């Protein structure tokens, strides 16, 4: 590891990833009920006309979480851009998780199976706003 990276990385950690959502209730249902995260906190900002909701599997102090930002007056779907990649979630069984999610109406965009040029089992799903989420089998 380069010296400059070694001297700074212990003080750094991934805090959260922010994504803008078109329907906060629909997104909360997706991330909490369907993916098993819990809502950690929510703050409304009336002067800015937006709500921030943090969801995740652990506490914000120790684990990376997702910040769902809902802009109250956004009436058009967001352009997800062409630089966005995906979120990745490790799940115990990719096949079983996809079967359950598909039964709930979640869009599976890449069926479960070994990754191309590899052996790790992956799948891709979409959240209600079209963001890609990769499901990965533990190593």
Question: Helices, strands, pairings?
Answer:
Layout lengths: L2 H6 L7 E5 L3 H11 L3 E8 L4 E7 L8 E7 L15 E4 L3 H10 L4 E7 L6 E6 L5 E5 L3
Parallel strand pairs: 1-4, 5-8
Antiparallel strand pairs: 2-3, 3-4, 6-7, 7-8
Relative strand content: 35-45%
Give the H and E element order.
HEHEEEEHEEE
Strand order of the largest sheet: 1-4-3-2
Q: How far apart lie the N and C ends?
A: 23 Å
What summary fits the major beta sheet? Answer: 4 strands, mixed
Question: Could you say what the CATH topology of the largest domain is called?
Answer: 2,3-Dihydroxybiphenyl 1,2-Dioxygenase, domain 1
Q: pLDDT average, as an integer?
A: 90
Low-confidence stretches: none
Question: According to CATH, what is the class of the largest domain?
Answer: Alpha Beta
Helix content: 10-25%
C-alpha geometry: globular
Count of spatially separate domains: 2
The CATH homology group name of the largest domain: 2,3-Dihydroxybiphenyl 1,2-Dioxygenase, domain 1
Radius of gyration: 17 Å
Number of strands: 8
Task: Report on the architecture of this protein.
The chain has two domains: 75 residues, 2,3-Dihydroxybiphenyl 1,2-Dioxygenase, domain 1 (Roll), CATH 3.10.180; 55 residues, 2,3-Dihydroxybiphenyl 1,2-Dioxygenase, domain 1 (Roll), CATH 3.10.180.10. It is α/β, with parallel strands linked by helices and 139 residues long. The relative contact order is 0.18. A hairpin with an 8-residue loop joins β3 and β4. The mean pLDDT is 90.
